[in-house]
Design a protein that fits this description.
The complex is a heterodimer of chains A (about 150) and B (about 150). With about 150 residues, chain A is an alpha+beta fold. Chain A has helices at about 10-30, 40-45, 115-140, and strands at about 50-65, 65-70, 75-80, 90-100, 105-110. The chains are: A alpha+beta (about 150), B mainly alpha (about 150).
Chain lengths: ~150, ~150
């Protein structure tokens, strides 16, 4: 039986879709303990104590000599040690979440320089590119039903 | 992140070597496919991030491209599968060039491992430059194709 043949096409498609769904669930099950999001760490500090985090983009809301405070999706957290960041700036950081505090011990902090304007432009250009790709695809593969031609009866 | 125009440009230039316009059209869809699926699941489907990760895994794309190929005419399916997969893997190669602060981008051995790789060549703030470079590549490739077409016509 050919992998691409018409025999048992429904079963082949069902198997492929089941594999896709299974891989998605497997990825979710294995991956959700990797780099937990900030709100999960703050909601269950004991569970995520010692977990490696990677947070981006995080808005700096306060900064002092001991560290700074970030906000992501309405959740705030303290980060130490201090970094050359100021309130209003957006950063990406990696580190370890500590339940005591709770606190994030930053390993690397990087300012995110991309402005919202350039981000909007990037999205707009991407959407335009996809639309052109899909239009080109439809140009080659659109279903064009032939008008039925009936032999005339004298 | 590389926007879809950049991804398209990476397929457009080498795609000129394909004489079959239909195969090129499928290749272009393939190079956009990982982000179309990822963003679609994430923003339209509200799916968790990790559930979407197989769309950016080399083996995760195999059943996805296979399922998509089954919607083509029977004799065209192997070629459609090959073009979709080649385009998708090209997308992953470009994404692997990102700088994600050492956290990795592409789960290269999924589903056998959740380890991710990155090359760290470009950051999100490089998107503007990459868009310009992509537009230049597309323009040069298209000009080359037009000139080759005129030479053949003569």
């Amino acid at each position: 039986m050919s992998l691409f043949g018409n025999r048992r096409l429904g079963w082949k498609l069902a198997a492929a879709l089941a594999a896709i769904a299974g891989l998605g669930l497997l990825s979710w099950a294995k991956g959700r303990s990797i780099h937990p999001s900030l709100w999960r760490c703050m909601a269950q500090p004991a569970r995520w104590d010692g977990a490696g985090v990677w947070l981006s983009p995080a808005l700096v809301t306060a900064s002092d000599a001991g560290g700074f405070e970030i906000e992501m999706a309405g959740v705030r957290a303290r980060v130490a040690p201090a970094a050359p960041v100021a309130p209003g700036e957006t950063v990406a950081l990696t580190g370890t979440f500590t339940a005591q505090g709770p606190l994030i011990r930053a390993k690397e902090v990087r300012k995110v320089a991309e402005s919202s304007g350039s981000r909007t432009l990037s999205v707009a250009v991407s959407i335009a590119a996809v639309l052109l790709v899909l239009l080109n695809f439809l140009r080659h593969f659109a279903f064009r039903p032939k008008v039925a031609q009936v032999e005339g009866v004298d | 992140m590389a926007d879809l125009l950049f991804h398209f440009a990476t397929a457009f230039a080498p795609g000129q070597a394909l004489r079959d316009g239909r195969l090129r059209a499928v290749l272009y869809v393939g190079v956009c496919l990982p982000d179309l699926l990822y963003k679609g699941l994430l923003y339209l489907g509200g799916a968790p991030t990790w559930l979407c990760e197989p769309t950016h895994a080399p083996l995760g794309l195999v059943p996805i491209c296979y399922a998509a190929a089954l919607f083509f005419e029977e004799e065209w399916r192997p070629r459609a599968f090959g073009a979709l997969l080649a385009g998708s893997w090209l997308h992953l190669l470009v994404d692997a060039g990102k700088d994600y602060m050492g956290q990795g981008v592409i789960p290269w051995a999924f589903p056998f491992s959740m380890d991710r790789v990155e090359l760290g060549w470009y950051r999100p703030e490089h998107t503007g430059t990459m868009m310009i470079a992509a537009a230049v590549v597309v323009a040069v490739a298209e000009l080359g194709a037009i000139l080759r077409g005129r030479r053949r016509a003569k």
